[in-house]
Amino acid sequence: MEGVVTSGLFSQLVKLCFYLLALRGLVVYTYRWLISPLSHIPGPFPAKFSDWYGAYYSALGSLHLRTLEAHERYGSVVRIGPNKISFNTISALHTIYSARTLQKTEGYVAMLPSPRVYNVHNVIDKDVHRFKRKIINQGLSEQRMRDFEPAMNNQIDIFIQNIRRACKESEDEWSEPINMTTPCKYLGYDIMGQFGFGQSFQLQIKPDNRFLVESINLSAILLGVYFQFADLVKARLHVVFASRALKLRKELQALMERIVSERVTAEKHSQHDLFSFVIDAKDPESGRGFSFTELWAEGRLLLIAGSDTSSTTITSLFFYLSRYPECYKKLASEIRGSFDHASDIHSSMQMVECIYLRACIDETLRMSPPVGGTMWRKACPGSGGIVIDGQCIPEGVELGCSAYALHHNEEYFPDSFTFKPERWIVSTDTSKESVDLARRAFAPFSLGTRGCAGRTMAYMETSNVIAKTIWYFDFTVAGGHFGTIGEGSSDGPEGRKRMKEFQLEDHFTSTHEGPYLQFKLRKEVADQLPR
Ligand code: HEM
Predict the structure, then answer these.
(1) Atom of ligand 1 nearest to the CA of 403
(2) Ligand 1, atom 42: closest residue by C-alpha
(3) Which domain of life is it from (predicted)?
């Protein structure tokens, strides 16, 4: 009898909880839809109710496409979450990312690898950021990059050797198809291992550490979801849904600890790496340097920030050159006419004069920005909000611009889905005004004090890899099914139908597959190959 009463009471309680939750949902969602100060801003209907919208499309890798679509449909100001506004104008871009009264959002804190371990990218506090950034800027300065360049070029030579090995002996035959995503990723991580800790991960030469690529890809997917919906971290979804990511993260942690401890025991200045510099670097004002934990947090960040992004740029550029033969021809003629020998291919006046190469890199960063999503900001507490393009944005609301959406805004980039390096070069067909306009709307590295610290390195790496590859090889799209991997498809989902666009999955940084290319060694330069 007592049991029957207890179970009756229990089911009543469950019902009550259910009704209370439903009522709370009704109140919250009605408020967000009809009463919120953002309710007048148009946008995709489900996005008004919950950040599940952003989290879902981020997990699918298509939030950049949904953001562009929303701007095309609703205009330059779009509500893309209950508390998130995306802008798509040059004026908004410059106001948001240079405003002193805006700061990064809680989504960045959700990216912490361990509690309270901040790095220069995810730290919100402006004073702490200023201190970290001053030191990192010195570590990534042009002079430091020049010192590091020979070590970078050694890694690029391994990349070239690996393609050479895939080539056939006969001059007339193409190599087997190579999925360019893979060697470009291995190269990116090997360079960043060398740069951060003085030793490459050796992904290019042996399989032992290649789990690192999957580990970082899975982490990026998870972090992308949390970046859009920071409260999900509390639900610890990763414990349920991402057991493989967590397992690989442990392996990565062990690998990094080994590399860091080997670096610590080696002579401090034995390498031109970030460690050798940062270990002694001090903030000129406060005299403070990095603690060991901070150094570790920065090294881990740079591994992700510097490798995935540059390798996506290089892979995308291979894709576009293989799809636009006239651009490929022009670039090959510039590179093969600018240098006398492979050993001349590094940062130099000759490289600076390769303006078509630079235009190809910029056009790739425009078409397929490796960080294409919206970098959320919000007004600092007590600032009273901010006005952007005539819209009053109250404190607490997240706002930003998506590089992918801006880069495909037809007002700034006519025929925006066509790869046209010429749009970056003033000529009889391209006015100075249109190049200036394009420059102001171009934001692959974001802007302002929180803009990318590694631009110099990214351009150096991309230029050297592409110039050396074109110096040594001819390449073409693989035949058959392989040749289609990486491109859009007419029967693909919305936003993925454009065949000549390299398909990126945007999860904060991006993942991708392909393009599959086939190579032939140019016999006239074969004797210059590094041994
Ligand atoms: C093509 C390659 C690259 C692209 C497209 C890129 C893009 C970006 C973007 C968009 C941001 C701003 C992120 C935000 O607001 O949350 C950023 C920040 C950052 N990037 Fe890059 N990046 C590239 C390469 C690199 C490299 C090679 C390094 C270092 C070796 C690097 C280091 C950083 C750092 C440290 C930050 C944080 C800056 C701060 O908050 O003060 N990046 N990058």
Answers:
(1) 10
(2) 454
(3) Eukaryota
Q: What confidence tens digit (pLDDT) does each residue in 343-364 have?
A: 999 999 999 999 999 999 999 9
Q: Which two tokens stand for residue 182?
A: 């893979």
In 3-state terms, what secondary structure has residue 157? Answer: helix
For 68, counting Cβ atoms within 10 Å of its Cβ (0-12 exposed, 13-18 middle, 19+ buried), the class is buried
Report d(CA 529, CA 413) in Å as an integer: 40
| DSSP 3-state of 454 | coil
- Is beta strand 398-401 parallel, antiparallel or unpaired with respect to 84-87? parallel
Q: What are 266's two structure tokens?
A: 């080696």
pTM score: 0.94
State both tokens at 61. 């890798």
Which of 110-119, 200-209, 237-246, 347-356 is predicted least confidently? Answer: 237-246
Q: Which of 528, 175, 154 is nearest to 336 (CA)?
A: 528
CA dihedral 384, 385, 386, 391 (to 10 degrees): -120
Task: Return the SS3 of 444.
Answer: coil
Q: Is the CB of 160 under 6 A from ligand 1?
A: no
pLDDT classification of 239: cutoffs 50, 70, 90 = low
Q: Could you tell me the distance, in angstroms and rounded to a whole number, from the CA of residue 451 to the centre of ligand 1?
A: 7
Residue 425, amino acid: I
380-393 pLDDT, tens digit each: 999 999 999 999 99
The two tokens of residue 484 are 């289609």
Compute the distance between CA of residue 204 and CA of residue 189 in angstroms, rounded to an integer.
9
Nearest to 109 by CA among 94, 125, 96: 125
Report yes or no: 377 and 398 within 8 Å, Cβ to Cβ: yes
Tell me the three state secondary structure of residue 179. strand
- Is residue 502 a contact partner of residue 319, using CB atoms and an 8 Å limit? yes
Strand, coil or helix: 412: coil
Helix (H) or strand (E) holding 104: strand 102-104
**421 CA distance to ligand 1 middle (Å):** 23
Q: What is the mean pLDDT of residues 145-158?
A: 95
The reply to whether ligand 1 has any atom less than 6 angstroms from the CB of 453 is: yes
CA distance 260 to 86: 40
Segment 446-474 shows an average pLDDT of 97
What interface predicted TM-score (ipTM) does this complex get?
A: 0.99
The confidence band for 232, taking pLDDT boundaries of 50, 70 and 90, is confident
Three-class SS of 124-143: CCHHHHHHHHHHHHHHCCHH
Counting ligand 1 atoms within 8 A of each CB, the residue from 309, 366, 442 with the most, and so the one to mutate, is 309
| Nearest C-alpha neighbor of 224 from the set 507, 530, 513 | 507
Contact 167, 483 (CB under 8 A): no
Q: What pLDDT was estimated at residue 290?
A: 77
Q: Distance between CA atoms of 415 and 363, rounded to whole angstroms?
A: 12
